[in-house]
């Protein structure tokens, strides 16, 4: 593979068909950067993220993370942590247990792991919330808990699928700032699907813009916002 194709995440000529939808992705996502995936509804943003996470596998081509091919690995074996819009906390388990599951699905937690759970909760502003059930939290607090779970996994790649879409605009800004802070601390590679050009502007170093299951523009943020392209791009930029 040529040097310029090296990245924290590489989709090497990946193609996939789901029902009548065809996807083709060929890109390298930079190490330690925040890359936003944007594009109209149905353009393939979640599918691209699912290919990286392992919820979808390519029909052809390869997915590499940190130089290792992971195309056929199940999600649990990939070096990624996930934060989704509905943050998938288990309703009947308290926050300590929910976050501990991020370290070990069998919950065999060593004392250091238990400390890491409490530290992660404090880190996201939920210190002392260990015994709370998800239903007793606000939407923003649940999203913070999902961040805490991603943090304890200590994986070098964090994947977020519209993590703030259900939150009100004020809280969205607070959570975006928290994500930037965590990124500065960890230096992780972050890939975030976003519908919101302001969020892309606030967070991203690089942007991949999708249409019809393909990447129609991949550029650093400044170039992206100055770019001319398909009508869908003009429409996205028009909502700034
Ligand atoms: N399992 C599947 N079977 C059939 N079609 C699918 C499947 N998964 C996704 N699709 C189709 O592929 C297209 C892309 O879906 P995807 O969820 O990746 O888009 P998206 O850009 O994330 O959309 P949105 O912004 O609306 O969430 C859609 O037309 C969707 O209906």
TrEMBL record:
Keywords tagged on the record: ATP-binding, Cell inner membrane, Cell membrane, Membrane, Nucleotide-binding, Translocase, Transport
Transmembrane segments: none
GO function term, MF aspect, one: ATP hydrolysis activity
Family under the similarity heading: Belongs to the ABC transporter superfamily.
Pfam families to which the protein is assigned, alphabetical: ABC_tran
InterPro entries registered for this protein in UniProt: AAA+_ATPase, ABC_SmlMolc_Importer, ABC_transporter-like_ATP-bd, ABC_transporter-like_CS, P-loop_NTPase
Classification via Gene3D superfamilies: P-loop containing nucleotide triphosphate hydrolases
PANTHER family in alphabetical order: SPERMIDINE/PUTRESCINE IMPORT ATP-BINDING PROTEIN POTA, THIAMINE IMPORT ATP-BINDING PROTEIN THIQ
Domain annotation ABC transporter: ranges: 4-237
PROSITE patterns assigned: ABC_TRANSPORTER_1 (PS00211), ABC_TRANSPORTER_2 (PS50893)
Stated name of the protein: ABC transporter domain-containing protein
């Amino acid at each position: 593979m040529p040097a310029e194709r090296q990245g924290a995440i590489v989709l090497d000529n990946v193609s996939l068909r789901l029902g009548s939808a065809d996807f083709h992705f060929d890109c390298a996502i930079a190490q330690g950067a925040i890359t936003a995936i944007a594009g109209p509804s149905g353009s393939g943003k979640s599918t691209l993220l699912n290919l990286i996470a392992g919820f979808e596998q390519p029909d052809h081509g390869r997915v590499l993370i940190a130089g290792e091919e992971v195309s056929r690995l199940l999600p649990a074996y990939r070096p990624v942590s996930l934060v989704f819009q509905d943050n998938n906390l288990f309703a009947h388990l308290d926050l300590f247990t929910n976050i501990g599951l991020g370290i070990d699905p069998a919950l065999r937690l060593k004392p250091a792991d238990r400390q890491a759970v409490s530290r992660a909760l404090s880190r996201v502003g939920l210190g002392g919330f260990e015994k709370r059930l998800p239903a007793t939290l606000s939407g923003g607090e649940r999203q913070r808990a999902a961040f805490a779970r991603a943090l304890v996994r200590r994986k070098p790649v964090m994947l977020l699928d519209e993590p703030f879409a259900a939150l009100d605009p004020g809280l969205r800004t607070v959570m975006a700032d928290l994500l930037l802070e965590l990124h500065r601390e960890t230096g992780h590679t972050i890939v975030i699907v976003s519908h919101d050009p302001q969020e892309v502007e606030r967070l991203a170093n690089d942007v991949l813009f999708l249409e019809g299951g393909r990447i129609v523009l991949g550029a650093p943020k400044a170039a992206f916002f100055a770019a001319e392209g398909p009508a869908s791009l003009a429409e996205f930029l028009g909502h700034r």
